[in-house]
Amino acid sequence: MYAPTPDDWRQANRARWDERVAVHAAGDYYDLDSFLAGREALRDFEIAEVGDVTGRTLLHLQCHIGLDTLSWARHGAAQVVGLDFSEPAVEAARGLARSLDLPPERAMFVAADVYEAAEAVPDPAYDIVYTGVGALNWLPDVDRWAETAASLVRPGGFLYLAEFHPLTDCLDDETGSTVAYDYFSREAWVDETPGTYADPAAETVHNRSVEWQHPLGDVVSALAAAGLRIDFLHEHDATLFARYQALRRHADGYYRFPADRPRIPMMYSLKATRPAVG
């Protein structure tokens, strides 16, 4: 339900994520054994749009247990730093890095709030600042996020964001064909659903979550106001899970509407560069 932002939103969300780390690490959704054996965790469009990361430094904000972060190291990044507010998630990520024989100078993980990232990470700026899917909805202030993220982009470097499209949260849950929720709402969405997207049947205790919807225009405008130049904004007609009952899973692993249904954007990605000095 929509509600004013509660004072304990950060504590509630941290308790929820802390509890779910063990579920995610043990389950089939993240399938850590196959990841450690070489399975790709990044989406194909992310790899294509970010491009060659060989020899570059990369900061991953809101990294959870670090699969995407470590994948960029596998793709040749000289150093990756993952940041997450959940200490159990950071410990799990560090364990994965050790299992992959990646020393701290190649793969480092930091437990800190994303709004405090500039004070928590080891370097003042990075070639690439990356944020993966399912991150911005946990933050109440997208302007503050953009200012923080942009401050960590080295001149000539860029921010890359891949996210679920905010339009998807406005449509009815069953068919995805009727507008059911306010696209422009600035209130929090407070929920008590147990389990997790990785295992809906998991028995969990800390079930309260507080999330926010950020219209696409707000995200783009916030990054531009923070001094970044928008290089591209791509909208994708596919998503990573069965958001609506009408979606069908395709051979490439993405979910799409049947061919006889009009398409809508369900994910988006953008790249924003900090102009080089001089």
Automatic annotation (TrEMBL):
Q: This protein's superkingdom?
A: Bacteria
Q: Which Gene3D superfamilies match?
A: Vaccinia Virus protein VP39 (3.40.50.150)
Name the top EC class: transferase
GO biological processes: methylation
| Keyword hit for Methyltransferase | yes
Q: What is its EC number?
A: 2.1.1.222, 2.1.1.64
Q: Which residues form the Methyltransferase type domain?
A: 59-159
> What does the record give under GO molecular function?
2-polyprenyl-6-hydroxyphenol methylase activity; 3-demethylubiquinol 3-O-methyltransferase activity
Keyword Transport found: no
| Pfam families xref list | Methyltransf_12 (PF08242)
Which keywords does the record carry? Methyltransferase, Transferase
What is this protein identified as?
Class I SAM-dependent methyltransferase
